[in-house]
Specification:
Elements: H1 4-10, H2 13-22, H3 26-30, H4 34-55, H5 64-71, H6 76-94, H7 98-114, H8 116-122, E1 130-133, H9 135-149, H10 154-167, H11 175-184, H12 188-196, E2 203-204, E3 211-214, H13 218-235, H14 239-263, H15 272-276, H16 287-292, H17 301-313, H18 315-318, H19 324-334, H20 336-359, H21 385-412
Parallel strand pairs: 1-3
Antiparallel strand pairs: 2-3
Helix pairs in contact: 2-7, 4-6, 4-19, 4-20, 4-21, 6-9, 6-13, 6-17, 7-8, 7-9, 8-20, 9-13, 10-13, 11-12, 14-17, 19-21, 20-21
């Protein structure tokens, strides 16, 4: 175990403020080895969808192969945000200034999203034209909200989180009238950040300022982080009891998803029977795929039950995994933010190479405002799935070595700046 008293003396407050979110090893603190494994798996799966962004393939169809290429990545954001709340519990047990740290860390993430990561996504510097409020932006704001909630008992925070997750779909019957009204409202920008996101159009920052595309609205993700904060208490339990509770929560959430989705009533704004029968606006979809095609923006109750349920239920199983593959994945789970910052420009650069090989030129489309403000890919550009997965595998292989190096650096050094990567 790390001598945290000595560490606090040697490191500045700013570095310590960020460390627990992306780089602390929960397994070392709580003996739950599966947490780094889940984080690492989330990063690896997430990279598939980010390769897809530059492949020109659509998000979710029309073939089953493309659908599941997208669908498996749905587990990433819920796991990432939920476990960010869980990590706050472990930090708070060792430090008295958790709320302050959450605010500092949240502001840092928001800054990075709007600067470094925006350039990595687009490979252009036209900030006056386009900005992206993506998952890192969302995590930053959720941390700032959690800073206030953390003053409350963990059980109360958990109730608030579950209430947001379970109750926000009450707005579904009113979305058709509310969305255009929000777009015209003077406070429309706030409603877009809180709930409606890009479905109500971009936020114009000033009369001639950039368009802010809100990909991840705060609701229900702030509820996911709050629920993860409460779940952190579960991970402090004795191992056998902890595993029983995780299994009960995971199986219960998964079964609830099957029931709610099967009834096709409350829990998601897109009825799967309508899609399966061709009544949905997006056209007909096979029943099995329509059943799994839950709403991510904003994440519906069904979407979160479908993703968080299996993740939590698998914790006891993953806690026992050993072997080379598990060790590889855990490396990414120990330095996930370092992975995140590296993987977007790496994948983007690899797409330039693929374009040069396939088309004989680097397509100007790769310098558009990805992933939300870009036009459709030009004719003849789009990849097939084998190329997509080959690029993804190559990216993961390349990323393993700097991630392993950085994990080793963090294990032997305590420089304050390490907490920012």
């Amino acid at each position: 175990m790390v001598d945290t008293t000595r560490s606090n003396r040697r490191e500045g407050d700013a570095g310590e403020a960020f460390r627990w979110f992306m780089n602390t090893n929960p397994a070392a603190q709580s003996r739950v080895a599966s947490i780094d494994l889940i984080r690492g798996a989330a990063m690896v799966l997430m990279a598939i969808d980010h390769v897809r962004v530059y492949s020109g393939l659509p998000a979710g169809g029309p073939s089953a192969g493309i659908f599941f290429t997208r669908w498996v990545t749905h587990f990433c954001a819920p796991a990432f945000i939920f476990l960010a709340g869980t990590s706050a519990v472990f930090y708070g047990r060792r430090h008295a200034d958790l709320a302050r740290h959450l605010v500092i860390r949240g502001l840092w993430l928001i800054f990075l999203e709007l600067t470094v990561l925006r350039v990595a996504w687009t490979f252009n510097f036209a900030f006056g034209r386009y900005e992206l409020a993506g998952v890192i932006w969302c995590i930053g704001w959720c941390m700032i909200v959690l800073a206030g909630l953390s003053r409350l008992p963990a059980a109360v925070v958990g109730v608030v989180g579950v209430a947001i997750i379970a109750g926000h779909n009450l707005m579904d019957p009113h979305l058709a009238t509310l969305t255009p009204a929000v777009a015209k409202s003077g406070l429309g920008w706030l409603w877009k950040i809180l709930y409606f996101g890009f479905s109500a159009g971009p936020i114009r920052v000033g009369e001639n300022g950039p368009r802010l595309m809100v990909l991840y609205s705060l609701v229900p993700w702030v509820g996911v982080m709050a629920a993860g904060y409460a779940f952190g208490r579960v991970l402090t339990l004795e191992k056998e009891r902890r595993n029983r509770v995780c299994l009960a929560i995971g199986v219960g959430a998964t079964l609830l998803f099957l029931v709610l989705r099967g009834l096709d009533g409350y829990g998601d704004p897109r009825p799967w029977r309508a899609a399966a029968s061709g009544q949905a606006r997006a056209g007909q979809m096979p029943a099995a795929l329509a059943f799994l095609n839950t709403n991510k923006y904003p994440a519906s109750l069904d979407f979160l039950l479908m993703t968080l349920g299996p993740m939590i239920g698998l914790i006891p199983v993953l806690d026992r995994l050993r072997g080379a593959v598990a060790r590889w994945v855990i490396v990414f789970g120990r330095v996930p933010f370092f992975f995140y910052v590296l993987h977007i420009p790496l994948i983007h650069a690899m797409a330039l190479v693929v374009s040069r090989i396939r088309l004989g030129e680097v397509s100007p489309w790769l310098f558009a405002d990805h992933p939300m403000g870009n036009p459709p890919p030009p004719a003849g550009y789009s990849w097939n799935l084998p190329v997509l997965y080959l690029v993804w595998a190559a990216a993961i292989l390349v990323l393993y070595f700097p991630c392993r190096w950085f994990a080793a650096v963090k294990a032997r050094r305590r420089d304050w700046w390490l907490g920012y990567l």
